[in-house]
Every structure is written in C-alpha cells, then in structure tokens.
Specification:
two-stranded antiparallel ribbon, alpha+beta
Length: 155
C-alpha cells in the first residue's frame, strides 16, 4: 500500500486504525502503545505523536483531531510497518482519492498564496499542499478536524 492509498482510505473512512475523532484515548493507547508527547497543556488539549501522525486529545481523554504530517522525507505511521516516501504530489493524491471512490472538492478556505487545499465533504478530511514556484504541488499534511466537541470537564 502506498502513502496516497492509505491517506485516501483515511479520508474515506475517517479512521487510521483505532484513531478517529471521538475515539477514547485509552483505546488508542491500548492498541498503539504510548506515544511521544508533543505539547502539554495543563488546562486544555494535549498533542501526541506516533511517527507522522499527530493526535490532539481533550482533557476528557477523547481524540479531538488528527493530522498526518507528510512534509518530511519519510513518513512513519502506526500499525503500518516501514516508512513511506514523504511529500506525494497533488496528482498522486487526487488519483488515489479517485481510485478509492472518494469524492473531493477544492477547499477555498485553505487555498491561497503558495498553498492549496482539497476537502472530502463526507468526512471533512483536508489535504493541504505547498505550491512551489516550479514543479508540482506537494502534500504537506492531511487531517480530520474536530467535530465541535464540548468538553464535559471544561470549567
């Protein structure tokens, strides 16, 4: 499986293995092990990482959003052995989405300057590309946003 095929599957299902918006953090760590902590915030959400996957976790221990960083030379993802080459082209991403039957549209809110965005309406998955002065646009990240969660532990 290629990185673009995997990301098309994530965009279609809104899941990367046990990780999805609203997932229990306890279930994620039981399945994937302990991650590295990227950002600790005592009053709000915390950011954790599993290779190229970043997961924002609310104080109530629910996953709020997830992002796959693809701007690096290689991308490692949990439950997928080995490394994927990073920075796939926009053409490769679009082709993988089309092959998966995943409908997408240009995301005008994330298209400006040297950046272009694509959005999957069914799951709200977003793909953000860097558009260089020369050459093809390259995928910077793919993510699934928060769905409007109101934390029951918020004061």
């Amino acid at each position: 499986m290629t990185l673009t095929e995997l990301l098309a599957s994530v965009a279609l299902t809104a899941r990367l293995g046990p990780v999805h918006v609203d997932a229990s953090w306890d279930d994620v760590t039981a399945a994937l092990g302990e991650p590295r902590e990227l950002l600790r915030n005592r009053r709000g959400p915390r950011l954790f990482g599993y290779g190229g996957l970043e997961v924002l976790v609310c104080r109530c221990r629910q996953v709020r959003l997830m992002t796959v960083q693809t701007w690096t030379e290689t991308v490692g993802l949990p439950a997928h052995p080995g490394m994927f080459p990073g920075e796939p082209t926009e053409a490769d991403v679009v082709a993988a989405l089309d092959r998966a039957g995943c409908l997408w549209e240009v995301d005008s809110a994330h298209t400006f300057g040297n950046q272009r965005g694509l959005r999957v309406p069914a799951t709200s998955a977003r793909f953000v590309f860097v558009v260089p002065e020369t050459g093809e646009p390259r995928l910077h990240s793919m993510g699934l946003p928060d769905n409007g969660h109101r934390c029951p532990t918020a004061t």
